Amino acid sequence: MLDKHALLDQLAERLHQSDRLAHRAELEAREAARTLATESEKKEDGRAVIEYGSLATGQAQRARRVQEELKALSDFQQEALPRFSRKSPVALGALIDVSTEDDEGFSERTFFLLPVGAGTELTGPGGDGFLSVITPASPVGRALMGRRAGDTIEVTLAGEVREWTVLEVA
User: Fold this and answer.
1) Model's pTM, two decimal places?
2) Residues 6 or more apart from 2 whose CB is under 8 A from it?
3) 89 has a pLDDT exceeding 80
4) Phi-psi bin for 32: left (phi > 0), alpha (psi -120 to 50), beta?
5) Rounded to 5 degrees, what are φ and ψ at 75?
6) Residues 112-127: what's their mean pLDDT?
7) Nearest one of 30, 155, 45 to 100, comparing CA atoms
8) Which residue intervals of the chain are DSSP H helices?
9) pLDDT tens digits for 66-85?
10) Can you tell me the distance from the alpha carbon of 136 to that of 57, in angstroms, rounded to the nearest whole number?
């Protein structure tokens, strides 16, 4: 059984890292806009100054979004993580093992349904295995909400229909 608290800590660290990168990129873009060149060169290349300013604004927005995600994750961690039995429906905080069969054979994936962090890949204990964070707003998260072990879902991703069977909810 995977330690959900360790996985949540791993996600929080990834979000903190993203926040640091966004702040650093914002500062670098603002500095580049400010020190682009001499005053006469700035007049000639005003577009570059505007572009660096827009880049800085975009990075500041990214940092704000990450801060909002960190707050939502912290709020979620404050609540007791729900316990799931083999018969439980999928809900926030669930680890969901799914399987699929395609041209390349049979494969399994594990998803961690959380309020934030969609698309983040987490690693299992000791680097063993990977889990994908999904949210209820994502196509896969929407399709899995309320499903139980044994249920099959269909999701269209990148124009391709994928079918997964829920193996376990933990």
Assistant:
1) 0.80
2) 95, 124, 125, 131, 170
3) yes
4) alpha
5) -60, -40
6) 90
7) 155
8) 4-34, 39-44, 46-78, 139-144
9) 999 999 999 998 888 889 98
10) 29
